[in-house]
């Protein structure tokens, strides 16, 4: 289908396109052009420091429904753990965690995407979901939460994952968390995000194909091998019955931390209730040690798991990555894909192991 | 060779290792761990805003030899264009451009690297070169220079490239420029950098293999095809006899600009004197329009060219990329490799085309 027919079809369907996915000719990677949250070019002009409002007064997530957000897609309550109600507006009080739609989504709901051509290029609708997971306390971010609360957050991730993966157009679900303005957080109030995509993101595609190639060559999981090695090594930071936390031999950024399940498991959402408790502990240990050692650094945290496109990914091993922001990516990082690491992962692990807990 | 033998060999050779290259098990990418510029872990603790000293008073590049840098590797003089002298200390005055060694190099000179094993991992010495190209004026960055001066800078890039590519351990030379603190510049005084590496950086390797695959499939150069298409398109910003400047259909960041030679040419360093004049114009046009339109934004600029490892890269097409920094990379970008673009490249091009020049 040509682009003009595509646009006509959209108009005919009354479809409001919030974004486009465009495929790079050289790499084959899909990029998101979010026309729905588009700004005019001149609005990008440099006009001094951006404000990062930390106060509770104008916080849009303190009482999301009062600041114009729709009713939650999922709520957990303070008084009764696990009790949750969907879609009942009047019950949005005493909440502990709530999931809402992002008002400025990178992708928007729509028909399953078809591919279209524009000259030599391929593109498609940016149809998908973009949700925000908000915890109640304005200041208590993950490192400062109780273990129970961290576990609840992880539980919410799983629940929303299981719901959205049923959508026939969703092929990948990406869960992430930005902490601190240097890590790209635009709202101070602690929140995580979830994006459900029709395509596999570039880095995920590469991670999958690397794992697959290794598996074909060595008949074993590359992540199992790494975890097996690291748990005995000087790069290990913490471990419990089900998870190993370590500073990887080849970090992408200074102070990077990875969390792997010991048992080979390709799908994050299939983690059991027991495993979830141990994962919450591992995550908290990693974040609290960073918080203490680096005095509340900004960081990005995300989960790399197998796609939900129905194909076989048994060779994959899900894991979480924490990337502290201690450095601005400059020409060398952007042009080569390589950050110059200035602190050895062996020293990072020792430093974080030595932080006093509790 | 085992890691312990490797270390012993190094000590025996009196070799001061400034960095290690470590290969990722999953992706095969090489990362730099710069132990020579290493900091202690606690020095990464968040301690308020970093200072970006813009004053001329303490500028280390105002008179590099007075601030402890060695004598230049190459000098161009103000009074006599093209006249240059290498290694004559007393002539370091009235300079217009000088190239010096980076005092905190990401890679350091040494023997050609051998690969070593540590458990399941592969690593090698970080041997290579890291140089800084400084222009004299403290405030006149590329967008504010005369065309002649921009051309001289490009000429210096070529000269250093041609010298370093002769080193038998150098397989890739990466030339880049960071402008503004948000783009990772740590020194205000305008300067470019050059890194000569024993390996091919991850992004370059991917760019090469994408171009190669396309060439094998379609029997034509993917970059020629793009340039051919874009020069007629609404994404074109500027063009002259030898170069096309455009906002790519699939940008990696907001406001990305690419500069391609019209003629298929794989090696940047082989650009002729005439072509260099046109390239300088294209580069200046791109940077000046950005400077005007976005009010001096921070940016990274780099050159992607074919490796100098002696293999055949006829299928490749060198080009320059300019990545303005209008956004902080957060969890989504770091975990998926995909920046959510908020301004359409078609609008970017129109906006930049409409800036008044001169």
Key words describing this protein structure:
homodimer; 358 residues; alpha+beta; HIT family, subunit A; 2 domains; ten-stranded antiparallel sheet; four-stranded antiparallel sheet; 7 helices; 22% strand; globular
SSE layout and pairing:
The structure is a homodimer of 358-residue chains.
Chain A: H1 3-12, E1 20-23, E2 30-33, E3 74-77, E4 95-101, E5 115-118, E6 121-125, E7 129-135, H2 147-164, E8 172-179, E9 191-197, H3 202-218, H4 222-230, E10 236-239, E11 243-246, E12 257-261, H5 273-293, E13 299-304, E14 319-324, H6 331-336, E15 340-341, H7 345-353
Antiparallel strand pairs in A: 1-2, 1-6, 3-4, 4-7, 5-6, 7-9, 8-9, 8-13, 10-11, 11-12, 12-14, 13-14
Helix pairs in contact in A: 2-5
The third-level CATH topology of the largest domain in chain A is: HIT family, subunit A
Biggest sheet strand order of chain A reads 3-4-7-9-8-13-14-12-11-10
Tally of helical segments of chain A = 7
Note the run of SSEs of chain A as H and E. Answer: HEEEEEEEHEEHHEEEHEEHEH
Of all protein chain pairs, which has the greatest interface, and how many residues does each chain bring to it? A-B, 99 and 99 residues
Instruction: List how many beta strands of chain A DSSP finds.
Output: 15
Distance between the termini of chain A: 61 Å
Principal-axis shape of chain A: globular
CATH H-level superfamily title of the largest domain in chain A: HIT-like
Just name the CATH architecture of the largest domain in chain A: 2-Layer Sandwich
